């Protein structure tokens, strides 16, 4: 299977990854990766903002990818991920959480605000081969500060 970097309409496909270790502990760590593919030779990887969880890392990756697309004047993007946790969180009714202490609401709000300006499709995919290719590319271009 060929890795897809552009959809049928010419929209760039961005692959995101989120990882964490020791969630809920004082020494928890979380980071994310974004691969724009060969069309845009830009690979981004960094430590997640805020609480160190896999979900937070994935939400951070979405925010960063959307911001990058907006700054580069890319009219729309498709963001692909493999996380069931993220898929469930994105489908959750956010209106019932307005007064809750959900630690990720700031990122959900930021994503929604940007998505009102820039068309973004966020898709869960099981295309493991595509993620293997993107993960290998990220591994080969890992920034020095990335130490997870």
TrEMBL record:
This is RNase H type-1 domain-containing protein. One of its GO terms (molecular function) is nucleic acid binding. It comes from the Eukaryota.
